[in-house]
Amino acid sequence: MKQFIIIGNSAAGIACVEAIRQRDKESKITIISDEDYPSYCRCLISYYLAQDVKEDKLLYRPASFYKENNIEVILNKKVARVDPKKNRIVCEDKTALNYDSLLIATGSSPKFPDISGIKKNGVYGFRTIKEIKEIEGLIPLTRAACILGGGLIGLKAAYALKKRNIDVKVVIKSPQVLSQMLDFEAAGLVRKRLEENGIDIILGNDVSEIIGEGDIRAIKLDSGKAFESSLVIVGKGVSPNISLVKDTEIKFNEGIITGELLKTNIANIYAAGDVCESYDITTGKHSVNALWPIAVEQGKAAGANMAGDSVKYDGSLGINSIEFFGLAVVSLGIYKVKEADKEFEELKISNEKEARYKKLILKNNILVGAVLVGDIRPSGVLLRLIRERINISSIKDALLCEDFGYPDMIDLVKGGEKIYV
Amino acid sequence: MKQLYYDVKKCLGCKSCEVACAVAHSLSDELFKAIKEEKLSLPRKKVFFSKAKNYPVSCRHCKDPKCVDACMAAALTYDKEKGMVLHDEARCVGCWMCVMVCPYGAVRPNLKTKMPLRCDKCKDKKEPSCVKACPTGAVIWQEEVK
User: Fold this and answer.
1) Considering the domain B1-58+123-146 in this protein, what is its CATH number?
2) What is the pTM of this model?
3) Could B6 and A421 be called an inter-chain contact, meaning their C-beta atoms sit closer than 8 Å?
4) Which of A302, A312, A378, B132 could form a disulfide with A262 if both were Cys (CB 3.0 to 4.6 A apart)?
């Protein structure tokens, strides 16, 4: 019988324990979380604030999950450091726990820019259910809010607050929204849709100061302009929670570096989810892809391997799907290349009037990225082409067709075909 | 466990299966009433044409379903006994993660209802409606071939 410790109680942590329990019903499993809530759907907190979903729908697993799977869960406890030499972890309250096998799935935290007033009450990172409940309490007192950053979290926050009848301004440093998942043209369609629905987007500007004594009163921009706001949401990206491995022999870069079994450089320590730096199959480099579905697949593979299996993880990539006011958007892998970069080939169709856009990025006839706006139906099969690194030369002409689908690639994909006789 | 199979040599691409599917998932379960329903019922199956053949495409209820893993709302679960991916509409927020990761492109978004369209093997009926609707016998409902 072994002792497994899982630090983190979200997508990667839960996928890991489920994978362990599929293979090992006996060993002890302990999950430690620094949050005061059972595992919940973190990506739904904006929908919760928007009142699109109720609190009971936020739970990622039923209340009985931990007991049924014989898992000890310790909430509200933060792990301060890992001690690989002694196979133990030490918590901030000085308690120590020993493990035979450890998963680090500590997730990530919002990055806060270093500007005047950023520490004031009323500035939130929009990451946890605790923050959302505090924001909920402020809603009756809030007339105007400001979002710093035009990424996914910022825009989802903007949508939620707008839905609660609050004036929302989104201040974005770059010249487009969603600069980490869309190119300029696709982003333009999203921006238009947001603006049509009453969300103010301020591009090419940054917040220089959050003004107010005690409560927040206003926001000042680089340009010198200021406007009213009593609530600030910071959506300037996230950084992996790696403090517990600093000053240890566990290797990290931006995140904790893992190999193809999701193992760190220490034999019995694994990492998965937002904290994990893994091989990116589209760029060929190691990177952090802090996304829910990626966290689940990494946690699942890590858990299998911790239980003695040998499940190879092919690698991660950026995958995003989101809908704003009826406009569906999907981004897969590499979404933007420099025009001068002759290594890549772009196939593209766009229809601004109908808010449709499709762009595919190829490298040596292998699909390495795609951006879809409006019609996202082929996104699943495109993702498969990317993941399986399929040479698409024989279907290149069909790729952009309206009715491109799985049958067009049937002879090219792995796994064979059983249902068509 | 029964699964849907297709004899592509017999499929004419007439889309009778698509129509039957849409009707079966309408409120009235009758064609001429279904077309007047406020939220038009859409088919959960689509016939694709490729290299001179027709291929009906719908959810295969994979044993290791990528859509279930990707679902950020825990609206999708895999029921081992039924051999089916189950969709809890009350939990679904229409984020389209399931559409994005389906390796067969078999889950499609219904942008009007904000719900994904997925074959549920006509769970309340004796067999999927597409089976009987097919005039050439191209849709086959049989025990799974291992």
Assistant:
1) 3.30.70.20
2) 0.96
3) yes
4) A302
